[in-house]
Amino acid sequence: MLTMKFGGTSVGDVLRLQEVVSIVKTFLHERPVVVASAMGGVTNILLASAQSAVERKNNAVEQNIQVLRDKHTAIARALIHDDARLTRLLQQQQALIDELANLYHGVALLKELSPRSLDAIASFGEILSCNQLSAILEESGVPSRFIDARTIIRTDSHFGEAAVDFPHSNKLIADLLVPLVAQNIVPVVTGFIASTEDGLTTTIGRSGSDYTGSIVGAAVDSREIWIWTDVDGVMSADPRSIKNAAVLSEISYREAAEMSYFGAKVIHPKTMTPAIEKNIPIRIKNTFNPSAPGTLISKATQSTASVVKTVTSIDNLSIISIEGNGMVGVPGISARIFSSLARMRVNVMMISQASSEHNVCIVVPKTDCDRAVKELRNEFAIDIAKKIIDDIAVQEPMSIVAVVGEGMRGTWGIAGKTFDAVAQAHVNIIAIAQGSSELNISFVVEQKEAVAAVQAVHDAFYH
Ligand code: ADP
Ligand code: ASP
Ligand code: MG
Fold first, then answer.
1. Crossing angle, helix 414-424 and helix 450-461, to 10 degrees?
2. What's the pLDDT at 20?
């Protein structure tokens, strides 16, 4: 079997969908399982409309509902010619969008928008997209079945970024999909969405369809997991900001996880986990250029390419610094910082502590910053009153720049070359991660200087 995940751009318009059909047909002999995202931009529209609904901006909601209707019905009309199939698909689309409109209505009436409601709303993107993709495959003569992942992927109820229950899900996935594939039916599974034991809709994190691809691919013992996107593979930097970024032919699972964690949006960081467990290679491929070899992500890399593989950056971060001369030698401060933040489920991206111990910096997403600071002020209220801690200060917006590559340890001069390049670009480094893993060097700069820093470091290693 071969699991192929198609991203939002790849299922985003008529031409792309025709290409998807042609790709699936090319690999029919490999017995494909398809996983797909919502059409490009749809998840953002769904979530933005939810916000408009809670603010009772009815016109904005209605306009967006119309945009979604038009977007999907246009695809159906362009790509489905069989009358019965077209009528059925259009009816399904209308019914789904009517249901969505009801949800928005409920949100507006209650003036309440919980993470649970957001997940229910967000799920419509993948449902609409995969239902239509399955019909399009059938139209082109490929027997196919639409599979709502809520019936096969179980999670906890941490809405917005739910954790997968693997033992349960793996069995459900294999039991449903393997027999279908054996009958030469191509399953089209919704990415991104899942459900709790009680049947509530959850999502597994933004851009999570890659992760679904890997969950499904591992559960059915795929030969490989292919992630079809809109670039030729994983590149040495984000091609949108770094024009001379180069495609990497091979990287390791660890490198892929590290670079995606630090902002390489091309693959979701969790995608590697299920694949590693079964040692299934992941390949990143371009639907705009299907014959290009793409990037192979696997256990070992034979490639003797540069020690540094990518330079990435991640924006919209805040630095929280906790400082005070009284902190020196006081045991347990770091432990208290981390347990308070863990309690609030704040995602700590990076920590840096000055060796003098009187300053601890933590880097968190800007969206978590207010909650984090509030919790820390609470936790340290007495220490602040006693002047053990002088201040909890925030600086934002910040970016982390990360240089990632296996084998950086033991290679002298990588850090020196990195920081020299940043200095020569006149970018000020605000903090450097302490105890960073051997495959990355990461540091914080002001967001407005991030691209310049990435370009400078990229130029130093790729010329
Ligand atoms: P999809 O909708 O297929 O999931 P995404 O937009 O999530 O696609 O991811 C692909 C995009 O990731 C590319 O268009 C590219 O701009 C961006 N990107 C960021 N960093 C990298 C990188 N290091 N290599 C390749 N692409 C990257
Ligand atoms: N549609 C979801 C998102 O935009 C998941 C995905 O595309 O991977 O976040
Ligand atoms: Mg993506």
1. 130
2. 98
Mutation test of ligand 2: which of 11, 71, 207 has the most ligand atoms closer than 8 Å to its C-beta?
Answer: 207
- CA distance linking residue 460 with residue 453, whole number of Å: 11
Atom of ligand 2 nearest to the CA of 192: 5
The alpha carbon of 209 is separated from its chain's Cα centroid by a whole number of angstroms, namely 8
Parallel, antiparallel or unpaired: strands 440-446 and 391-404: antiparallel
Write down the pLDDT at residue 434. Answer: 59
- Give nearest CA residue, ligand 2 atom 6: 207
Question: Residue whose CA is closest, atom 3 of ligand 2?
Answer: 207
Please tell me the distance from the alpha carbon of residue 129 to that of residue 122, in angstroms, as a whole number: 12
Place of tokens 């432990």: 335
| C-alpha to C-alpha distance for 67 and 80, rounded to whole angstroms | 20
What residue spans define the domains of the chain?
A: 2-229, 310-461
Alpha-carbon distances, residue 92 vs 72, 80, 120, 148, 423 (angstroms): 11, 14, 17, 14, 58
Domain 2-229 = CATH 3.20.20.80: no
Q: Do residues 37 and 69 make contact, with C-beta atoms less than 8 angstroms apart?
A: no
Ligand 2 binding residues, C-beta < 6 A: 8, 37-38, 43, 125, 191-192, 206-209
Give all strands (DSSP E) within 233-309, no chain letters.
250-252, 282-286, 295-298
Structure-token pair, residue 395: 């600086």
Between the CA of 335 and the centroid of ligand 1 the distance, in Å, is 36
Per-10-residue mean pLDDT, the chain, length 463:
98 98 98 98 98 97 98 98 98 98 98 97 98 98 98 98 98 98 98 98 98 98 98 97 94 94 95 98 98 94 72 96 82 86 89 75 94 94 91 95 85 87 96 74 95 97 88
Mutate to test the pocket of ligand 1, among 242, 265, 440 (most ligand atoms within 8 A of CB): 265
Instruction: Give the position, in ligand 1's atom list, of the atom nearest the Cα of 40.
Output: 2
Instruction: Specify the residue with its C-alpha closest to ligand 2, atom 5.
Output: 207
Q: Which atom of ligand 1 is nearest to the CA of 6?
A: 3
CATH 1.10.3720.10 fits 310-461, yes or no: no
Q: Indicate whether residue 195 lines ligand 1 (CB < 6 A).
A: no
Evaluate if pTM is beyond 0.85: yes
310 phi/psi in degrees, rounded to 5: -135, 155
Distance CA 233, CA 140 (A): 28
Q: What is the CA(43)–ligand 2 centre distance, in A? A: 6
